[in-house]
Amino acid sequence: MSFAASLRSAAQLRIRAKVHAGFFLVLALLIAVSAIGLIGVRQLSQAFEGYAKQAAETVDIFDIQNDMTVLQRNAMQFMVVGGADREKLTREEIEHLLQQMTESSESASDPTSRTKLAQLRDDLKSYSASFEKAVVARTAREKLVTENINPLGEKAQKEIEDFIKQSMAANAQQEVAYATVIQGDLLTARLNVVNFLSKPDNDLADRIGDLFEKFSDGVEDAIRHVNDPKRVDLLNGAARDVEAYRDAFSEAVVRAMDLDALVNRTMAGAAGNI
Questions:
Q1: In 10 A of CB 84, how many CB atoms?
Q2: Environment class of residue 260 by beta-carbon count within 10 Å: exposed (0-12), middle (13-18) or buried (19+)?
Q3: Is 149 left (phi over 0), alpha (psi -120 to 50) or beta?
Q4: Cα(200)–Cα(138) distance, rounded to whole angstroms?
Q5: Which of 54, 137, 200, 255 gives the lowest tally of CB atoms within 10 Å of its CB?
Q6: Residues 207 and 184 sit within 8 Å (Cβ to Cβ)
Q7: Are 163 and 235 in contact, with CB atoms under 8 Å apart?
Q8: Residue whose C-alpha is closest to residue 249's, from 180, 169, 149
Q9: DSSP per-residue string spanning 56-111
Q10: pTM beyond 0.85
Q11: pLDDT by residue (tens digit) across 225-242?
Q12: Which residues have CB under 8 Å from 171's CB, separation 6+?
């Protein structure tokens, strides 16, 4: 082989080596870029997964908050107007919320969130226990109203009405006048009792006590101006029934104030914590 041919062959080898080197360099760069891109995609994917999980947890919290608002409304409606359906619905909502909090706590990725959700669940259990106590207190109060307060008030009212009818038949106008006054006092007391039971208030309870005293004084004054024994018996019967009515109301005051504290302080406080 000539010297010139050897030079050409060596040159071709150098060119081929450079081409190969360039090719491998480009390949290496492509691999590096691909690796960086893959790492970036994975990081981005992880970031999106984390965001999606946080968004889902946030939605769960908002759902819990909204459901708690509905629960409070239905519990309050039951306390005001009663009803077996509302009582059942409130218990079902409590169970639903407890289940929801448990599931959210188990799926939460952040330990702090799990701790807070566990605390929410404890607060809801406290709310539930207070609701059950309130149901018992409300049932006892309603029984007192339907079995004692209302019948006694109606009975006393009828006795006074009968007294007025008999006095009018006997043309005893003075007796009618006295009876009309005490009838008004009893009606006012009964109306205020209804107002108290719908919205307990210590000042109102005191005013109702004063109305009972006024009624008793009015009956005693009226009796002194009645000569007929039958009509006296009617007034005495009304006085006895109103005294029993007053005792029943006094017991209802205690129950109503306890119920009010349960609903507007204990239950409201637990709901506020949630």
A1: 8
A2: middle
A3: alpha
A4: 13
A5: 54
A6: no
A7: yes
A8: 149
A9: HHHHHHHHHHHHHHHHHHHHHHHHHH--HHHHHHHHHHHHHHHHHHHHHHHH-SSH
A10: no
A11: 998 999 999 999 999 999
A12: none
